[in-house]
Amino acid sequence: MASTGDEKVQPVGTASPVAADNVGSRNGEKLQGSASASDSENSEEIRQRILEQQAEVRNETRLTTNLSSLWKRDKTKKRLDEIATQPSVFDDPELAKYFQPSEKYENRHRFDPSFRWTWAEELPLVRRIDWRVTAWSCIAFFALDLDRSNLSQANTDNFLEDMGLDTNDYNYGNTVFRIAFLLAELPSQLISKKIGPDRWIPAQMILWSIVSAGQFWLKGRTSFLACRALIGLLQGGFIPDVILYMSYFFKGTELPFRLALFWMANRLTDVVAPLLAYGLLRLRGYRGYEGWRWLFLLEGLLTLVIGIWSFFIMVPSPTQTKAPWRRNGWFTEHEEKILVNRILRDDPSKSDMHNRQAITFKLLWESLCDYDLWPIYAIGLTFAIPAGPPDQYLTLTLRQLGFDTFDSNLLSIPCQITTTINMLLLTYISEKINQRALLGVFVELWLLPCVIALAVIPSGTSRWASYALVTVLLSYPSPHPMQVGWCSRNSNTVRTRTVSAALYNITVQLQGIVNSNIYRRDDRPEYRRGNRQLVAIASMNIVIYLLAKSYYVWRNKRRDKAWGAMTVEQKQDYLETTTDKGSKRLDFRFAS
Questions:
Q1: Is residue 103 scored above 80 in pLDDT?
Q2: Residue 450's closest CA among 544, 341, 543, 535?
Q3: How far apart (Å, rounded) are the C-alpha atoms in residues 378 and 443?
């Protein structure tokens, strides 16, 4: 179970140390004060204010990125006979009345604020959920990435030549996929909210698997683009849907470690997929078909099996695990009460269906208007572009260098392993030194000399030297996980954190569209013009990171000045009465 109870360092991006001294000692008084707010404040406003205050307290110990939880596991020793029931608003009758579960909440019949249990009862349940929910989510993500990225392996088997396509058609295919994926994000979440992720996610998987397997019968450019669009439409929204589903079973302090495993499954796919392709592409000529056709068909059938299995393994909630093929369910009534009450004590808002609220255009617009997050959104639009085209064209490049189909797939593996290791190291370092923008500059300085070399390297250079250059470039430490945590930390409110993360993800998807259109047919085979553009973008990214750093430092200094000018009484009055939320509070400091 992931926990951060041993972490006491006040991070940048939460309330300042000055404010924390007051807040920590008066947390109970603040929550009580919320309940006795002015008569003009309605119950929903009071309720939301309490939730925001609780979130601030949790943020002081919660992990700031998902991947950081891999090395920040709970080091405290729990006595199994101790009571595991955690303090919450339900222990105070004056506060509890604002958080009674909704009549529509499916687990309401197991809610009991007086219920108590021990660690010996809770910990085995968490491990059981890990095997049935976390393990499933990793396998599901493997299925997603396998079907969306196997086009790269198909290219090593003369896919473009066999289909009568060229570089521009390949770019269009990637562009169409990303646009469709992006457009499907919101509709997918609305459907998931309406019918439940336990029904919608398996349906998504089955539908995109059928389309992916159907690429066996591709005939030309039109069918190629149509399949890429359909796969994008059917896969869009899958990732936030799965994260939402996992939140039904895990507490806020437990979820980051599970999400770290979830994202690691994505990187693992990039290692496994070339190995699968190494074998499947050897079927070229079997029954007169190309190897890439068998690759699409068999991998599509594999993910179809995973999708069908998901229908039988997924459950709507901890109290709805019984089915005709699972007559006894996963848990006893006593175990269901533990699971429901531990989740609600950690986050009471989950009982009013708030955790199932789909991201709407209105919420996205409100998040977009939060100008303090614009620097991170700007970074999301461009930070990985210098590595994007070389990555998309890796297998094609290896073929052009003279490596055969099978060697090209195997040679694509080393950079996937090293970039994963470097990504973990970068995320670890960012947490240790509490820096993000400067580490982003470091990443761009890693990429810049590599893309400069690609732009000027002589045409007759040894293929192994060219391969070494591309491998070094693609081994860069991706700052994406670090920046997801950065965006979350600088949002710092219950309502906006998920929305801002989704908006950041949209900027990254838009970046992918740009990636797909830099290398063009008239620029092959060295793509000199495209690589010069990558040099310019990498240089621009350095400036963007430095401007973001400067902006947040400037904002923090202004708040330090305003906060320092207040008396102790004024600070206390502000903390107790302010309507400012999250990053708009004077005692909030931005991470940079």
A1: no
A2: 535
A3: 16
Q: What's the sign of the alpha-carbon dihedral 343, 347, 350, 355?
A: negative
Q: Which 3 state secondary structure label does DSSP give 237?
A: coil
Alpha-carbon gap, residue 233 to 188, rounded angstroms: 9
Would you say 153 and 279 are in contact if contact means Cβ atoms under 8 Å apart? Answer: no
Average pLDDT over residues 89-116: 81
Peptide bond into 525 cis (omega under 30): yes
Render pLDDT for 410-444 as a digit per residue (tens, 0 to 9).
888 899 889 888 888 888 888 788 889 999 999 99
Is the backbone of residue 78 left (phi > 0), alpha (psi -120 to 50) or beta? beta
The pLDDT of residue 355 is above 50: no
Query: Quick one: which of 248, 549, 291, 525 has its CA closest to 404?
Result: 291
DSSP state of 592: -
* Pick from 178, 67, 17, 54: nearest CA to 421: 67
- Gap between the Cα atoms of 149 and 512, Å rounded: 13
DSSP secondary structure of 28-83: HHHHHHHHT--TTS-HHHHHHHHHHHHHHHHHTTS-SSTGGGGS----PPPPTTSB
The kind and range of the H/E element at 419 are helix 413-433
Provide the whole-model pTM: 0.78
